[in-house]
Automatic annotation (TrEMBL):
N-terminal signal peptide: none
PANTHER family registered for this protein in UniProt: ADDUCIN (PTHR10672), PROTEIN HU-LI TAI SHAO (PTHR10672:SF3)
GO molecular function term, any single one: actin filament binding
Protein name: Ribulose-5-phosphate 4-epimerase/fuculose-1-phosphate aldolase
Domain Class II aldolase/adducin N-terminal: 15-197
Length: 250
């Protein structure tokens, strides 16, 4: 496949998104063929890439990604297979349409993420990882499998200005300006959920940081310079699957 057959910047975006799919698999945040990651096509506001439904994340390639618009219509191109997950389209199109700052969106169904999503109090301020989201985490009430276009407005309203959201009784949803930032968000949120489930399972009384410490730590995560650390972590994570590069970028 030649990059000249695609829109400007599309092949690079496809390779980067395919790598992100494989990283999510590497960190065991997959759910068979379900869940989804999307990336807005550079230079556009209404086109984004999503996985071809049925391909395991571990085997995702640049050619497996489908370019669709905000109405779910596959765009003309060199790739034949165009099937996408309907619920994935509903969730991701809502975020891409309403949040131009979130170019990459990740949705997962991990055991820890679903467990916290099922708990009344949601994510607790128990760990440093959880405090990254203190005051910066949204919640969306479960409405069934996300097949109704009407749910998009409620998803967006619940997300508000945040980059991370717990879909109650369902899973986790994050977004970022880049795949690196979105990966950083889902990694920290997932680890926070894992730690919470294990802490609660211990059966001992829990220690909570003070309100002042919670706010201070959250502000530290939002401080200038975080972007450089996010990119550094992204490159470190990619190095773990470097031997797959020629496979994902095809």
């Amino acid at each position: 496949m030649s990059s000249s057959d695609l829109r400007p910047g599309e092949w690079q975006a496809r390779c980067e998104l395919a790598a992100l799919y494989r990283l999510i698999a590497h960190y065991r945040m997959t759910d068979l063929i379900d869940t989804h990651i999307t990336l807005r096509l550079p230079g556009t506001s209404e086109l984004f890439l999503i996985n071809r439904y049925g391909v395991p994340f571990e085997r995702m390639t640049a050619s497996d990604l489908v370019l669709i618009d905000l109405e779910g219509r596959p765009q003309p191109g060199p790739f034949v297979e165009q099937r996408v997950n309907a619920a994935g389209f509903v969730i991701h199109s809502a975020i891409h349409a309403a949040r131009p700052d979130l170019h990459c969106v990740i949705h997962t169904h991990t055991a820890a993420g679903m467990a916290v999503a099922a708990q009344r109090d949601g994510l607790l301020p128990l760990t440093q990882h959880a405090l990254k989201f203190y005051g910066h985490l949204a919640y969306h009430t479960y409405e069934g499998i996300a097949l109704s276009l009407d749910e998009r407005a409620r998803l967006v309203a619940d997300l508000g200005p945040h980059k991370a959201m717990i879909l109650r009784n369902h899973g986790l949803l994050v977004g970022g300006a880049t795949p690196a930032e979105a990966f950083h968000e889902i990694y920290f949120l997932e680890r926070a959920c894992q730690a919470q489930i294990q802490a609660l399972a211990g059966g001992m009384a829990l220690h909570y940081p003070s309100e002042a410490v919670c706010q201070h730590t959250a502000a530290q995560f939002q401080a200038d310079g975080a972007e450089g650390l996010i990119d550094l972590a992204w490159q470190a994570a990619l190095s773990l699957i470097e031997d797959q590069r020629q496979d994902w970028c095809r």
